[in-house]
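Following up on my earlier message about shikimate-3-phosphate. Here are the inputs again, as you asked, copied directly from the submission form:
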Amino acid sequence: MTALGVSGPTELPPELSLTGPRPLRGSMRVPGDKSISHRALLFAALASGTSRLWWLADGDDVVRSRAAIEALGVKVRDGAGSPGEAAVAGERVGPVVIVRGGGFDGLSEPEAVIDCGNSGTSIRLLTGILAGRAFHSVLTGDSSIARRPMGRVVDPLRLMGARIDGRDGGRLAPLSIRGGDLRGMGHELPVASAQVKTALLLAGLQASGATEVTEPALSRDHTERLLPAMGATLEAIPGGVRVEPAGALAPIELAIPGDPSAAAFFVVGACITPGSDLVVTDVCLNPTRIGFVDVLQRMGAAVEVVVKEERGGEPVGEIRAAYGPLQATTMAGDEIPRVIDEIPALAVAAAFAAGATEVADAAELRVKESDRIGTVAQELSQLGIAVEAKPDGLVITGGAPHGGLLKSHGDHRIAMAAAIAANACEGESTVRGWRAVASSYPGFAADLASVTG
Ligand code: S3P
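Thanks, got it. Here's what our run produced:
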């Protein structure tokens, strides 16, 4: 099998130069939420009928999920945005993607290896789907994906009856999946993970008997919100969720709200850059995603959220942020899953705060797109900040960061955190490896330029 190629955006420059400080002002929107976009595409592929999805995230990760369902035989096309189609999304007329699902049995054996690129959500969610399909498929990804733990999804799927193999006994990608009959069962996750939870729920939809998933702390719950809207039977249980097998899913019409994890970089940027006053509109305000607002408010930041509507079971609205002095804080325990993707941005806020900010119970950061404990520590040190890296977290002593030469380490969130830090610092800085932002936010530099004038 040869890998199916997906051409990512190549027009991004290899490095970004910034001169600061430049205040962030005015109003902006960010791309559609990445987690919801993956789910909307993958669930629409399983639905019986045509789904319409507006404002899907435009980064390479979600392009990989789209290419994967196409490789599995699902027809996907970009819509013309006819008036009838636009009306469904109210005022949010914009790009629409049309997915023609043929039900679970509509998926067919892919001719080639499916390449998930840098996208952990694609490879883990697809593993859960393909575990229940009676054909052979192989999932792979880039050098970062090749290092990320897959045993956490492979082991419980094997217990349900799936035949999955991979490097290191199935702990690492590429994964080879020969799907088939699955048994529903209870799973107790050792680590809170929405990717693993979702993979098991997707397998559970195809199993005989109910499947239950409990986790030590609540991770993002977009799956639990979206699947019932498509007709699946999900029920909250203590510490988790139970899903019943589903013969079919109904198609959806959904305008994806903006990504709070993308908004977090601009919100932090506004909090640390004198003269800033910014509003990010049409953002998903799901409580499992906006822990960073609580953290910034604890630090004394002028940040507010206003819920304006509900869409696809998700609260949606605005986040306002303005510059002000910040105090150190602690992030630990059950709060960690609610801020896991925002820790690079919050670490930048900590670098500008008075006192020592501590992040604990966050060993998961070591197995993200990069080892984010190591890469955050390295990049903040480049800015002249004292950082201690611990096995499960960081201690960041705030000060007066200066600009410099920064690196993305191939990680989109490290690249964007470096850019907002550099934007707040005096003088010129460079972020090397800038193309990493293509995973989630190819237009980040243009959006930063538009709010900094
Ligand atoms: C995601 C879950 C989280 C998060 C990732 C997206 C999702 O990963 O870090 O960026 O969409 O389900 P884990 O499930 O590994 O915690």
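One observation from looking it over: The chain has two domains: 3-32+258-452, 34-255. Hope that helps, and feel free to reply on this thread.
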